[in-house]
Amino acid sequence: MALIQYLTQIHIDFGAVAMLPQVCEQAGIHRPLVITDIGVRSAGVLAQALAPWGAYPPPVFDQTPANPTEAAVRWAVQLCHHGFCDGLIAIGGGSSMDLAKGVAIAATHQGALKNYATIEGGSLQITAAVLPVIAVPTTAGTGSEVARGAILIVDDGRKLGFHNWVLMPKVALCDPELTLSLPPRLTAATGMDAIAHCMETFMSDAINPPADGIALDGLRRGWAHIERATLNGQDREARWQMMSCSMQGALAFQKGLGCVHSLSHALGAADPRLHHGTLNAVFLPAVIRFNAAAPGMQREQRLQRMAQAMGLAGEAAAGDGVALARAVSAMNARLGLPAGLAELGVDPQLFVAVIKAALLDHCHKTNPREASAADYLEMLHASL
Question: Is 313's pLDDT higher than 90?
Fold first, then answer.
């Protein structure tokens, strides 16, 4: 049975961040803890977001790692308890938002964080006691501001997903103004992350027609504007469209993702220095080629419909998976993203561990074509 559920209140426009004190009050948050990272603070974006509080801003935890960890969650929980905080404001990219969701769980639930991981059967152990979260994205990529899940590296080294509807932010303030200073490389990587969400969730054969429509529209917006946003960060129209693409991709991926994310989660855990969005961009072409043979892809003409949304012609528009994959690779090249894993310094000796983790990843099961260990190995080599 399909579950179709949209809950987060979303404000998207330039200047939306000025509503932050107001939406906190509406959510019943009187003593918020801000979760962010050093980069957001250094860029002046944190000060911009907290300006409505004037001389009395809320306390801030700014030590979010690029790949958030259980250790960072514990650190933030200590600050949260010390300040008697009753809610969280996540200001940043997916790392800050995921860390905030981890804090929301750990601050109100007992035991190790891994006990609440989806793969451990812990989703139903996450209760409505979680701290409420307000999300303010500063990148257009993960869409975690409207998602029910978080990805965290737990103490045993695994990169695990945590999913429950109570983890969805109460409000998302999507203010493209906060993304204007995002550097070109990060704009490209986070933008391809959003595009990968739209494409991969649309390829999944789970039944969710609204998600399909949202994904296709998000793909259309993202594909048409990612180069403009990367080449000219001050292009306000392109920044707005990429913010929408990111948000729409995450609204859609409640339907499920697939092998792109199984691989990027697994490799990101094995080598935490790697950027998640960049990995998604690198893996997407190989997974498109693998998925092209799935019966549902042919029956529903999913390749053709994606190509149409992307404005592609020729073989790609006719539903050729190889041609569509080439179009994605060409976009990666135009954006200045790595051509493959070798350029990122990935050691093929990691592949055995990566495949093992990918087969256990929560995204593995919703790929439109079941991947074996041999299939994953082929995709990894194709992505080198």
Answer: no
Q: What are the angstrom distances between the C-alpha of 56 and each of 31, 47, 131?
A: 12, 12, 22
Q: What are the pLDDT digits (tens) for 135-160? A: 999 999 889 999 888 999 999 988 89
Query: Over 60: is that where the pLDDT of 2 sits?
Result: no
Geometric angle at alpha carbon 159, from 204 and 190, rounded to 5°: 60
Exposure string for 286-311, b = 16+ CB within 10 A, e = fewer = bbbbbbbebeebeebebbbbbbbbbe
CATH of 9-178, one of 3.40.50.1970, 2.40.440.10, 3.30.420.40, 3.40.50.720: 3.40.50.1970
What are the helix and strand counts (H, E) for the chain?
15, 8
Contact (CB, 8 A) for 218 and 174: no
The arithmetic mean of pLDDT across residues 37-64, rounded, is: 92
Residue 26: which H helix or E strand, with range?
A: helix 20-26
